[in-house]
Specification:
The chain is mostly helical. The chain contains 8 helices and no strands. The N terminus is likely disordered.
């Protein structure tokens, strides 16, 4: 039963990656809080947010689990402010999709006992900045505060979901937790590659 649950989670992650929502950051018009709430629900952002929560549980000490999500949220807001200011960089979409792949790799390594907490937090911050640039580039004129409150609220919710999911897997799977997290990491990596392929098509 527990193996089935972990398999279903990995399959769900893979399906999200191929759901055709790679256009989460395509420059559509935004108008405020509701658009901010909905904007992070594209596959690329959603998978990255969940991955940060799951990775934080696996890679960080129990007393520091929330450092991963906190690091992401701060860098996300800073990146969004840069985007609003007109700063940007090429291939932001590709970088966002690649971050999903790298989060999957980090999760696999962490589940095998790799001590990559510090480099992982650097990657979390870098990925967050890319997501923030994309958010900021689409911010509505004169209503950034409401828009930012929306995408930050959804981001934090997804982080919490990732953390709670990982804690539940640890509790339910006991000795098989490592294999389960390796499967989730592999599913994330494959999903990120699918997103990259969609952008290249």
């Amino acid at each position: 039963m527990t193996r089935m649950n972990s398999g279903r989670l990995a399959a769900l992650i893979a399906l999200a990656g191929v759901a055709g929502m790679a256009q989460a950051h395509t420059g559509h018009g935004t108008h405020g809080l509701m658009d901010g709430l909905l904007h992070p629900l594209g596959a690329d952002h959603l998978l990255a947010m969940l991955a940060v929560g799951v990775w934080s549980v696996v890679a960080l000490p129990a007393a520091r689990i929330w450092r991963g999500p906190a690091c992401f949220v701060v860098a996300l807001l800073l990146g969004a402010l840069c985007g609003v200011a007109g700063l940007g960089m090429p291939l932001v979409e590709q970088g966002i999709a690649l971050s999903v792949v790298l989060f999957g790799v980090l999760l696999v390594l962490a589940s095998r006992g790799g001590t990559l907490a510090a480099p992982g937090l650097v990657l979390v911050a870098a990925a967050a900045a890319l997501h923030g640039l994309a958010h900021g580039a689409e911010a509505p004129v004169g209503d950034f505060a409401a828009y930012a409150a929306g995408f930050l609220g959804t981001t934090i919710t997804l982080h919490i979901a990732g953390v709670l999911t990982a804690l539940s897997l640890q509790r339910w799977l006991a000795d098989h937790g490592r294999l389960a997290f390796q499967g989730v990491g592999a599913a994330l990596g494959i999903s990120g590659l699918v997103l990259l392929g969609q952008l290249a098509a």
